Amino acid sequence: MRNSSVAGLTALALTGGSLLTFATPARAADATVLYVRQTSTACSDTGPGTAAQPFCSISAAAALASAGQTVDVSGTYRERVTIGASGTPEAPIVFRSSANTIAVLTGPTAGFTIDGQHDITIRNLKVIGATDLPALDVRNASDITVEGGGFSMADNTAITAVRFSGVHRSSITRSFVSARPLAAGVLLDGTTSGVRLESMSITDAPAATPVDQSAGIRIEGPDNTVVNNVVRGFTGAAIAVQPGASGTTVVNNEINGGAGHGIHNHGASGTAITNNTVRDRCLDGIRVDGDSTAVSVQNNLLVMNGPFGQTDCTSPGGPGVEIAVQDGAVTDTLVDYNNANHYNPGSSTIYAWNGSRMSLAAFQAASRQATHDLDTPGPRAGYDSANSAAPGFSMTDRVGTARIDDPAVANTGVGPLPYADRGALETIRSPQARMTVKLDLDTGTVTVDASTSEPGVAPIASYRFSFGDGTAATQDTPVITHRYTTRGDYTVSVDVAGTDGRMNSTGQMVSVLPRTGTIGLLTLSALRYVAPMAAVPWPSLGADRSTLDAGGQFDLVDAGGGQVALFARASGQYVAADAAGEAAVSYQGQAVLTNHRFTLTRNADGTISLRSQSSGRFVTATPNASTPLIANGQSIGIEQKFYRVNVTDAGRSFKAGANGKYVTAENAGAKPLIATRTAVGPWERFDLVDLGNGQIGVFAHANNRFVCADNSGVNPLIANRLSAGAWEKFTLVRNTDGTVSLKAAVNSRYVTADSGGAKPLIANRTAIGPWEKFTLGS
Questions:
Q1: Number of domains in the chain
Q2: Fewer Cβ atoms within 10 A, N terminus or C terminus of the chain?
Q3: pLDDT tens digits for 117-134?
């Protein structure tokens, strides 16, 4: 029966706001396709509608179309199209956009009207900006198929976007609907049944004032199906099932933020609310109230509904809960196998029963329902735990993925598929790619280890490594080493593939730059070596080592542009300075970025200083060994100075040629150096500090002091100085026989193991003889 309120409207086609009538077009003899091309210079609304002479308007083609014909449309049209003829089940009338385009109807009167027809298909056509009538208005019709395209209302419009009245055996799939906040997105009235809304995207614009009638989908008639849709917004409800509706199926829908309820079953009977995901609604996630009977609420995933963590919920009647069963609906509503996820297990107000807000445990006690409901946080809470025998349960999820058993998760569901998931999406875990990269700047290689990658639901089948230099390798083992022929910055990545074909990737940038040496940094302020600090929980550098061990070794790297980078060999990461000059100098990252770059300055006293490119300040080392380094020095003082020690020159010993014995800093350095020891211990080890210009300092392990040619070389050598000045500088002479000699800078005399080593070392010889030769030991 035709609704009197809209009868007669569909006989008119409005273009640009004026009333038009069309002359009778010439009929194309038995044409299968009628073409509409308003931009064609040959178009005519009285022509045959061929590709050579298409119609100028869709309405002209609609007036001619009959069973089995297709109206092919390209372009944008300001008109409302009334379809006045019917097709047959075997030969429907089809309105479609032409290949690779979307035809558009636009303007206040834009849209389609079908009134009293059947077997019609509308495919990939878009209506935008309608204000006066629904963008799609179907009445007293059957076997109507709408596929793709979309229907959008203009701002401040209080008219439903898609209205079905007295419609049967019809469907809308893969279409988008954009409604304004004062009306429904899709309305299936009380005389409409057997309609399927599937894989649609339905949204609204924000509303200044909440309206109870605003619903993404409003169902008033029996036996309709709402499946696999995404609905966002709406102040009444995302999906509203009204009194008079019966046998409605609401399955696999994803409902996101909005001021109203998520799914509201208000007095309807026999509704199956199954496997939906409802999140971030201001009111109840799922509400069953009024005189609702025989409603099933199962397998749903509800996340943060009610104003939990939300700041823009202004709807009246709040705050909401995840699941509410109220009024007469408490008699026989079935609630089970849902997961109410607030990221706060045991929350006391996430359910409501018969007017009272309560916890899940209280709801279970009061209702004797929800035995298998969960309020467990985390992404895996609903895995493999649904009731696959629930009314309306689908063997596929919202995006058509088949249910799958995750071998890593215990099956706690029931029914034919005890491994189905709760919510709208079946979670099928892909592998998770993870990798570590080890840089070797000596050889210019990277070793990539992806062995910590996690399999998904299927085992890992292969690893594909890409090294950023145009080379790649695929293998079934997770570790590979690659050598670069050119030093530079590269992106290393790995693609991990499961036996089911699912993949995951990860990558990182690496800087494989030229190494100019491996050094230790000895602070002038404390005479301690820089190394990772063991006493702090973050990767910071401090100066708390008395000797240069493996933790204090840094590759000095040419970063280009006259700048250097420091690569901490122990951690395999580059040293970084905070851009603000406030945080500790750390070791993080395997790519040289701005905060990894330093300018190295050689000071007049032989020390070096490091100025951070990111902060513009100098790296500072205080005398306090428990304080991390920090790049905050405005100028170079004692705390901004470091001695450079090449790793190969650390921990050396001197064996005197005079007597074959080792030089010792006798009595922990309290006495002059003398060659009297037959073995090497801490007192017999020295670091040769690079002071530049071919000069070195000799740093004694015995007491962490510099060796001095005391009194301008008049007195014996003794390790008692806190810095390397003129008396502490030496030239290391390498003799042709493999031995070395030390020449004091203060008097240009050679160090001798005087009296065949019986006396302390002293710098008083003008030439090198046997007593002035030493063998360097490691």
A1: 3
A2: N
A3: 999 999 999 999 999 999
